[in-house]
Each structure stands twice: as structure tokens, then as C-alpha cells.
Write a structure and sequence with these properties.
two-stranded antiparallel ribbon, mainly beta, Nitrogen fixation protein NifZ, nitrogen fixation, 5-stranded antiparallel sheet, Nitrogenase_MoFe_mat_NifZ, SH3 type barrels
Length: 97
């Protein structure tokens, strides 16, 4: 896992709990997913999941725990590996001023 020089945790997380996200690239087991061989395909490009946890890695980057319902896997992903699958509507409609 290669991190950029940016210290991402100086800013708020890009995704919130419950956000529906799409994987941007193939996610393979790097040895941190129990019960599966290293290199096992955990999520493929385009798979949809939901953010169920937000942690940090090396005090530099956010790690988003993404639950993929089709496989029932919860996989840690970096921001660069995810896109928001759909925009969230505002909780309270605001009139146009």
C-alpha cells in the first residue's frame, strides 16, 4: 500500500458512515484479511458497498471499512480506492434564496 505525501487526517474524512461507495480498482488481500490467501480478490472494480467504520493508518490516512453486501466482506479501503456511488439528498430541504 503506497501512501501519498499528503497527511490526509489533517482534514475531515471524505466519506461518512453509511455512505454508499463504489470501488475504483480491484482490491486484493494484502495479508490483512483473515481466512483468505494473499492476492485473493476481495472486491472488483465497480462493486458497491457501504462505509461501516472509519479508522486511520500510520497517522496519515483514513481507512474506510466498507461492507460489501454481495460477499458479506468488510474490507479496509483508502480514499483513492473509492468513489461516492450516489450523492446524498439534504436531510432538510433549503429554499433557494
Amino acid at each position: 500500500m503506497k501512501l501519498s505525501e499528503e497527511i490526509e487526517i489533517d482534514s475531515p474524512p471524505c466519506f461518512d458512515m453509511g455512505d454508499r461507495v463504489r470501488v475504483r480498482k480491484l482490491i486484493r488481500n494484502d495479508g490483512t484479511f483473515p481466512g483468505k490467501d494473499i492476492g485473493f480478490h476481495l472486491a472488483k472494480k465497480g462493486d458497491i458497498g457501504y462505509i461501516v467504520g472509519i479508522g486511520t493508518y500510520l497517522q496519515r490516512a483514513y481507512i474506510y471499512s466498507v461492507h460489501f453486501l454481495e460477499t458479506n466482506y468488510v474490507v479496509g479501503c483508502l480514499k483513492k480506492e473509492l468513489d461516492l456511488a450516489e450523492e446524498r439528498p439534504p436531510l432538510i430541504e433549503q429554499p433557494d434564496w
